[in-house]
Amino acid sequence: MSAVASGVALDGNALVFAPMQLDDIDAVLAIEQAVYPHPWSRTNFSDSLQSQYPAWVVRDAHQVIIGYVLVLCAPFEAHLLNIAVHQDAQQRGVGRILLDKALAIARGAQAEVMILEVRPSNQRALAIYRRYGFVQTRVRKGYYPAHDGAREDAIEMSLPL
User: Fold this and answer.
1) Catalytic residue at 32?
2) Whether 117 is catalytic
3) What are 93-103's pLDDT values in tens digits?
4) pLDDT tens track for 69-96
5) Are 139 and 118 in contact (CB under 8 A)?
6) What residue ranges of the chain have pLDDT lower than 50?
7) CA torsion sign, 50 to 96 to 107 to 13?
8) Catalytic member of 117, 132, 143, 156
9) What pairs with residue 44 in β-bridges?
10) Residue 74: beta bridge partners?
11) Which residue, 58, 68, 136, 71, is CA-closest to 102?
């Protein structure tokens, strides 16, 4: 079951949201591996789907997956687990569309706050989150794997809903 993203277009063509399916994981994993230096594994995605976390893909006019978002909803809060946009569709508003979707999911689950972690080195994502009103709540030391066995901190951010 898919739904056209209301009023949302890329290059004049409507984008289509659909719940992520196991059959989508190859395309999602290809995006993940292309955009993140330390990507999620196939198991991370399949486990999230099996746990029934809200997970959505967005497709372009050619039905190609160009982005995805996964959210964990718990009582009173939602956690943005993963969000990514295909390199060819970046800097065209798709990330904001996916973040809007994540926030809609959280509000629909009656969450009071959205929480996320982001690498300090991911300046584009940090800028988007700050524009949305997310604020830093703490730093998680050594949270992410980095090059040569090192670790990178995570900035935890939250947004009251």
Assistant:
1) no
2) yes
3) 899 999 999 99
4) 999 999 999 999 999 999 988 888 899 9
5) no
6) 1-7
7) negative
8) 117
9) none
10) 77
11) 71
